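Before we proceed, please read the two lines closing this message. Tell me what the C-alpha cell row says about the fold.
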Amino acid sequence: MPKTYLFLVLAIVAETIGTVALPATKGFTRLAPAAVVVVAYAVSFYFLSLTVKVMPVGVVYAIWSGLGIVLIALMGFLLYNQRLDLPAVLGLGLILSGVLVLHLFSATTGH
C-alpha cells in the first residue's frame, strides 16, 4: 500500500474513533472521552493534510467522508445497537460504491 493510502486509512480510522467516542462525552462534560475526541480528530486532520499533498482534495474528502460514514454506521450498530432500515443500508451501499468507483476507475486518485 502506498504511503499516501496508509495516511488516508489512518485519517479515516482516527476520525471514526473520534466520532464513535462523541456520545460518551455527554456534551463535552466528561473530560476523558472529550480528550479522545479532540486527539482523534487532530490525528485525523494531520494525516488528511499529508494525503492532500499528493491527491486532489475533493477525491480525498470523498473517500475520507464516505468510508467514515460507513464505518461509523457499522460501529453505531455494533457498539450502540443503532439499527438501520433498508433505505439507510442501500444509501450506505451507494456511498461505498462511489468510493470504489473513485478508487478503481478514476485517474485522479493516482494509483
The radius of gyration is 15 Å. The mean pLDDT is 92. The longest helix spans residues 57-80.
